[in-house]
Amino acid sequence: MDLRIFKDKQEVAEQFSAYFVEQTKGKEAFHVALSGGSTPKIVFDVLAEKFAGQVDWSKVHFYWGDERCVPPTDDESNYKMTVEHLFSKIEVPQENINRILGEKDPNPEAMRYANLLEIDLDRVEEVPQFDLVILGMGDDGHTASIFPHEIELWDSEDHCVVATHPESGQKRVSLNGKVINTSKEVAFLVTGASKAEKVEAVIEKTEGFEQYPASLVQPTSGNLVWFLDEEAASKLNQNPS
Ligand code: 6PG
């Protein structure tokens, strides 16, 4: 397992940005699924402000691992967050941005987005293959929008599924486990002390780890990288610090 532990959120953002630049190098087309929530904000800020000149954005095609079923103008929107912290600061062709239409009816939208992935991306045994899927993890061990109370959605045959946030009841559209694990590379971006318990459970497979969807992230390629800050890694036995 490729565990990369850095001092703080700023250093994680810089190291992840350098990694992202490396990943895009020499690619004629690079298809990436972004994570949402709050952790990516500082990463996108640093990527845009310090590394933008090192990426040919005309070759990078953006998708999302999940989206909240809200309009793109809503503060809960992962698309809105990404516009504010990344797209508004870089020269990326609009046609390279493939957002999940959070304002639409979730079920037909999940089917539409799955169809888009099946057309746009190469496929491995009929499963769309990203070059990189970026994932976060919730304090409850969820990833993308696959939550512990709906962990069976991970094995859904539908490449995009409709999920429900356990507390708010908010609907989400999310990639399924097959699409995530078919990606050439998967990178977790996880920071903050509130994640430490689940990071330990998922990485060190402590008791009950199977109930956390993040533990099901095992890309067939074997290419899984964890970007952690020391707070998130604080309970790991293998944490050098
Ligand atoms: C989302 C995400 C979700 C996120 C985790 C962590 O839309 O919420 O994609 O999987 O990565 O909830 O969220 P934070 O980064 O806000 O802790």
From TrEMBL:
- What are the UniProt keywords, alphabetically? Hydrolase
- Kindly report, in one word, the top-level EC class recorded for this enzyme: hydrolase
Q: Residues in domain Glucosamine/galactosamine-6-phosphate isomerase?
A: 10-226
Q: Could you tell me which pathway this protein works in?
A: Carbohydrate degradation; pentose phosphate pathway; D-ribulose 5-phosphate from D-glucose 6-phosphate (oxidative stage): step 2/3
Question: One biological-process term from Gene Ontology?
Answer: carbohydrate metabolic process
Function per UniProt: Hydrolysis of 6-phosphogluconolactone to 6-phosphogluconate.
Q: Which organism is it from?
A: Flagellimonas zhangzhouensis
Q: What is its EC number?
A: 3.1.1.31
Q: Which family does it belong to?
A: Belongs to the glucosamine/galactosamine-6-phosphate isomerase family. 6-phosphogluconolactonase subfamily.
Q: Which InterPro entries match?
A: 6-phosphogluconolactonase_DevB, 6PGL, Glc/Gal-6P_isomerase, NagB/RpiA_transferase-like
Q: What is this protein called?
A: 6-phosphogluconolactonase
Q: According to the entry, what is the taxonomic lineage of the organism?
A: Bacteria, Pseudomonadati, Bacteroidota, Flavobacteriia, Flavobacteriales
Question: Which reaction is recorded as catalysed by this protein?
Answer: 6-phospho-D-glucono-1,5-lactone + H2O = 6-phospho-D-gluconate + H(+)
Q: Does the keyword Hydrolase apply?
A: yes
Identify the gene encoding this protein.
Answer: pgl
CDD domains given for it? 6PGL
The molecular function terms in GO held by this entry are: 6-phosphogluconolactonase activity
